[in-house]
Amino acid sequence: MVLSAFSLTDLKRGYHETTTGLQCNYCQVQWSPATAVNLIDAHLTLVHGGNLFQLLHADNRYNSLTVNQRDLLTGFSAGLKDQALAEQMQVAPATIRHQKFTFREKAKRARLYLAIYDSVFAPAANQPVVTAPKTPKLSEAETAAALQHYFDFSRQPAQLKQWPRKTAVRQVILDRIVTELPVDQHFSTNALDQQLSRIYFDPATLRRQLVATGRLKQTGTDYWRPAK
Q1: Given 63, 81, 99, which residue is the final one in a domain?
Q2: Whole-model pTM?
Q3: I need a labelling partner for 52 at 20 to 30 A (CA). Which of 93, 138, 153, 215 fits?
Q4: Is a pLDDT exceeding 60 seen at residue 135?
Q5: How many C-beta atoms surround the C-beta of residue 7 within 10 A?
Q6: What's the confidence (pLDDT) of residue 137?
Q7: Does a structural domain hold residue 128?
Q8: Beta carbons within 10 angstroms of residue 195's beta carbon
Q9: Which residue range is the domain that position 95 belongs to?
């Protein structure tokens, strides 16, 4: 499993979205986008021992868990009480409680590190959203010139060559980009990013801008282009 190929959501659920549907993180099995989650979970359990098992026992240099820590996490996931887990591992209950505290502290440090990393190495995705009006202030001729300048229309779909600095030009660009999405079709975050990555190398920026300016609606991880 190549960690860099998957998002945090992909890793936690055990499968990822492709251009044609869904695929298991651990083998070549694929499903249609409409496949029920319980069927995918059944595959992960029967074939791979479960997604959690695969994560706990991932054979790569990023997995620093000891054998005891893996056993503890397996016990916690099974809902075992501290006393029962302590008896099973032949340690004091206080040891189990301390280890649980240690896991929580590591998770806090990991979240902070990810926030810092994203802020440093992916600043475009963390820029404040622009709340400029939907209607661009460009003339018809300026709009046409801006589209020709920023898009490569020899590609399908037309690809954005660079992100404009001027707010008025951004509105024109966003108006053009949103037309590539069907009205009222719902997308998950990953599915939407896959669509937008065909237009620009930084889909997260496009997604945030489209939502911030009202061109896309969002509820949690559900996105859609509303009918006007």
Answers
A1: 63
A2: 0.51
A3: 93
A4: no
A5: 13
A6: 72
A7: no
A8: 21
A9: 64-121
pLDDT tens for each residue of 76-92: 998 999 999 999 999 99
Lookup: tokens for 200:
């620009």
Do the beta carbons of residue 173 and residue 150 sit within 8 Å? Answer: yes
Distances (CA, A) of 198 to 19, 77, 160: 11, 39, 9
Instruction: Break the chain down into helix, strand, coil percent, rounded to 5.
Output: 55, 10, 35
Separation of first and last alpha carbons in the chain: 43
The angle, 0 to 180 degrees and rounded to 10, between the axes of the packed helices 82-89 and 67-77 is 150
Residue 129 domain flag: no
133: in domain: no
Residues 6+ apart with CB under 8 A from 168: 132, 136, 137, 138
Q: Do 20 and 14 touch, CB atoms closer than 8 A?
A: no
What are the DSSP calls for 129-183, one per residue? PP---SS----HHHHHHHHHHHEETTSSS-EE-S--SSHHHHHHHHHHHHTTS-B
The verdict on 207 and 197 lying in the same domain is yes
Residues 219, 185, single domain; the answer is yes
Domain at 70, CATH number: 1.10.10
pLDDT band at 59 (very low <50, low <70, confident <90, very high): confident
Query: What is the reported pLDDT for 179?
Result: 94
pLDDT, one tens digit per residue, over 35-55 is 888 899 999 999 999 999 999
Residue 166, token pair as written in the block:
């001027």
Angle made by CA atoms 131, 158, 183, in degrees to the nearest 5: 60
